[in-house]
Amino acid sequence: MTKVTIDESYAPSDAEPFMNERQREYFRRKLMNWKSEILREAQGTLTALQSENENHPDLADRASSETDRAIELRARDRQRKLTSKIDAALSRIEDGSYGFCEETGEPISLKRLDARPIATLSLEAQERHERRERVYRDD
C-alpha cells in the first residue's frame, strides 16, 4: 500500500470517489489523533490518582474526594470503551469496510463520519435502531 500524504487543510468531499486513499488516510489520522488524546488524558488521570493519597480528616472532604475519584474512573472507563471502538474503526479502514453502513452496506455520509469517525451505521439506520430501542425499552 502506497503512503498518501494529506495536506493539513484537506477535508473529504462528496465530489471525490467515496473512501478513496486520501479519505481513508484522513480518517485514519483523525482516529489515531483522537486515540492519542484519550491515552494522554488517561495517563494524566493515572498520575493524579497515584499522587492523591491524601487522608482527609473531615468526613465531608473525604466523601467529596471519593465522589470525584469515582466520577473520574467512570469517565476513564467510557474512554476505554471508546478506544476499542476507535481500534475497530482503524481495522475497518485496513480491511476496506470503513465508511459503509453495517446494516445496509450503503456509504455513511462524510459529514457523519467527520463528526463521529467511529460510526458504523448510516444516519437513517441509526435512527431506525434508536426507534426500535425506544419501543423495546418502553415495554
UniProtKB/TrEMBL annotation:
Its main location: cytoplasm. Residues 96-131 form the Zinc finger DksA/TraR C4-type domain. One of its GO terms (biological process) is regulation of gene expression. One of its GO terms (molecular function) is zinc ion binding. It is found in: Cytoplasm. InterPro entries: DksA_N, DksA_RNA_pol-bd, DnaK_N, Znf_DskA_TraR, Znf_DskA_TraR_CS. Keywords: Cytoplasm, Metal-binding, Zinc, Zinc-finger. It holds the Pfam family zf-dskA_traR. The keyword Ribonucleoprotein does not apply. One of its GO terms (cellular component) is cytoplasm. Residues 23-93 form the DnaK suppressor protein DksA N-terminal domain. Residues 48-67 are annotated as: Disordered. A zinc finger (dksA C4-type) spans 101-125. Residues 53-67 have a biased composition (Basic and acidic residues). The keyword Metal-binding applies. HAMAP family: DksA. NCBIfam families: dksA. Belongs to the DksA family. Transcription factor that acts by binding directly to the RNA polymerase (RNAP). Required for negative regulation of rRNA expression and positive regulation of several amino acid biosynthesis promoters. Interacts directly with the RNA polymerase. This is RNA polymerase-binding transcription factor DksA. The gene is dksA.
